[in-house]
Amino acid sequence: MKPTTRRKFIGALAVSGATLAASRAGAAPVNLDLAATKKDTDFACLYHCDFGDPDRFSQMLTNMNNHLSAYEFDPMRIKLVIVAHGAGIKFFLEDLSGTVWEKDKISEDLYKRVVGLSKFGVEAYLCQITFKRQNIDPGRTRKDAFLKFVPSGVASVAELQSKGFAYLKVG
User: What pLDDT is stored for residue 6 in this prediction?
Assistant: First the structure.
């Protein structure tokens, strides 16, 4: 029997993660218990997204891709999280009709880029307060396993920072 290498182990994890993600496809995002979250990699960073500018969002995704590349896209070494509230949640909705952003145009390619980053462990935490205050049904959120609802976006930013996540915001 051949010994297990790190590469084979990570490959097996990726396959099992893809299988799990596929089994969750179409399911609504889950509510994340922030108290149970922890920093389980040496390096972790939250990207704060409370803005609705597609160009700025695109730059944030580029920065995240570059950040991951510095760690060879290895989710065992780095964990990146997007915390979205306010106008930032619009990038994660199935459509913008009936929202304050319904006249905005967002390229579908932006969300495809988020999906691509999720293959390396990136998650997005979406603020429930924003959904309530904007009167948006949370069921209108895209149905991907890497999307999670959190009670408050700003509280999540503080919680993650207190657990050792670095903070970045594209300006």
Answer: 52
For the sheet containing 43-49, what is the strand order?
30-31, 147-150, 123-127, 78-84, 43-49, 166-168
Instruction: Between 95 and 16, name the one with better pLDDT.
Output: 95
As a dihedral over the C-alpha atoms of residue 132, residue 134, residue 137, residue 142, rounded to 10 degrees, the angle is: -110
| Lowest mean pLDDT segment, chosen from 31-35, 45-49, 157-161 | 31-35
For strands 30-31 and 147-150, give the pairing: parallel
| pTM listed for this prediction | 0.84
Domains of the chain: 27-168 (3.40.1260.10)
Q: Rg for the chain (alpha carbons), in Å?
A: 16
- CB burial of 81-118 (b: ≥16 within 10 Å; e: otherwise) equals bbbbbbbbbbbbbeebeebebeeeebeeeebebbeebb
CA distance 75 to 162: 21
Average pLDDT of every residue of the chain: 89
CB contact burial 62-77 (16+ within 10 A = b; e otherwise): eebbebbeebeeebee
